Amino acid sequence: MRITRALGAGAVAVLAMGVPATAASASSPAFRPVHTLAGQPTSITAVGRSDVWSAGKTADGQVLLQHVTNGRLRTQVLPVEASDDLAIHGSSADDVWLVSGGELWHYTGRAWRQVALPEGFVAATAVFDVPGRNVYVGAYEHLQGQFNDTVAQLFRYDGRTWTSLGGPEWPDGWDQAGTEKLSKINVVGKKVFAESHVYPPASMTYWAAYEVDGTTWTRFARTGEQSPANNSRMNAWIVNSTATSHLFLGIRGLATDPMPQRPDCMIAVVGQDPTSCTTSTAVGDAAKFSNGTVVIGGNDWRSNNPGEPEAWQQGSFVLRSTNGTERKIGGDPGDETLDMAVDPSGRIAWALTRSGDTYTLQKYDRYRR
């Protein structure tokens, strides 16, 4: 492992969620606040039943880490720019990874260390850790010396060797110019999935989801081409560990509004056209329990059904079963759910939520009342 910088241990945590149909019972499990977090956290990862990290931004734009272990909160600042693609992900207490400002960092259980990227690649934009030695990293390189033109690739790194898994194709009819980056990675068993964001020098942009088999990329879901100002994107996606590789999507849009209109919901299967689905809340983020149930963290949203006056709706937390039925559960996601995670046991969910300028880490144990 090539290392360029190292910093002593520091910690963090964050949470939130949104939701559907039937009302929650007062005695049922619910999301409960655990900690109010400092700064502006945007990403969380759960590496144990009571071990959660959050990553966000300090007032001066650096990475703020907050680590919750057994209810105790520790904080640390990394000397790294807190960029829009900041993300943290880990598989155990001594194996946590972070990308921000183009840099890749690794926590070993004792210290954070910066890890050098593959030769020629100038920035990391996504990371997903799996148990064992491997971590998956999205990075990009400049096209033939063109500073503003980038091409993304997905890599698997075992601590010594970087193995390229290739990258997504550009949209039909678009010149390979502009910025391409990987914005999200998911690994389920032996299946690898990636989300890409392409925005050329012209006025259009789009997001797409792919299944990666070796170095073969199969696109099975995408947003429409749009103005970058619209900022519609695949906001939450959950891959089921089945042979058909289902994908649950929430499409966030209309960034010009203070709160989004209720987004679309989609089920995508590799090799088939995506189909619409119904969900009762604007999806902020979502995560999946080990039994296949999806927990959704909602955002406040505007109802704009044809022929009906616009009305603000309160976001909520929801459980969505494998057959598509939904049940509202207790807890308040505030204005929006920023990120969600499930612990390695597959039974405890965490949510990072925001209400105004207050950020809260919340916990849901589906076996605790």
Detailed description of the structure:
With 369 residues, the chain is mainly β. It is 0% helix and 56% strand. The chain is built from no helices and 31 strands. It has a five-stranded antiparallel sheet, with no helix packed on it. Strands 2-31-30-29 form a four-stranded antiparallel sheet, with no helix packed on it. It has a four-stranded antiparallel sheet with strand order 3-4-5-6, with no helix packed on it.
A few lines on this structure:
The chain has strands at 3-8, 32-37, 40-48, 51-57, 62-69, 72-81, 87-92, 95-100, 103-107, 111-115, 123-129, 135-143, 146-157, 162-164, 179-188, 191-199, 206-213, 216-222, 233-239, 246-252, 264-269, 275-276, 282-288, 294-299, 301-303, 311-313, 317-320, 326-329, 336-342, 348-355, 358-365.
Topology:
Layout: E1 3-8, E2 32-37, E3 40-48, E4 51-57, E5 62-69, E6 72-81, E7 87-92, E8 95-100, E9 103-107, E10 111-115, E11 123-129, E12 135-143, E13 146-157, E14 162-164, E15 179-188, E16 191-199, E17 206-213, E18 216-222, E19 233-239, E20 246-252, E21 264-269, E22 275-276, E23 282-288, E24 294-299, E25 301-303, E26 311-313, E27 317-320, E28 326-329, E29 336-342, E30 348-355, E31 358-365
Antiparallel strand pairs: 1-10, 2-31, 3-4, 4-5, 5-6, 7-8, 8-9, 9-10, 11-12, 12-13, 13-14, 15-16, 16-17, 17-18, 19-20, 20-21, 21-22, 23-24, 24-27, 25-26, 27-28, 29-30, 30-31
